[in-house]
Amino acid sequence: MALALNARDLDRNSPAWRYLAPHFLAGPIPPAIQKKIGVDEYLQHLSDMCTAYPEWKLRVVDQDVQQGGVKDYASVFTNVENQGVPPGVVWQSCAISEFKNIDGQWLVVGFRGFSGGHGQGTMF
Length: 124
What we know:
15% of the residues lie in helices and 43% in strands.
């Protein structure tokens, strides 16, 4: 996701986004996204952020995968460095991607985040 965002590759049909399940829901991701939204709304949010903050880039600091409590479920915890929101500022955030094995494919069914930006107004 970070590589696709940094390349401004936000086309739903791009290979970068095919791992999102059809019933994928993002949110809440305070302060920017207050409720759960679907794939198209989420990609539009990212596009809007890229337009508002052309310098915005993400750098993955580290990740940890945790097997879920039920079969065919896992969570990926990602610490991210956000650059350029606002311009010249760098801040940390954490995201949780929820994966489910659907018909033999691991797809993202949920995504939520936590801002370390002290209300900068965005989160990926």
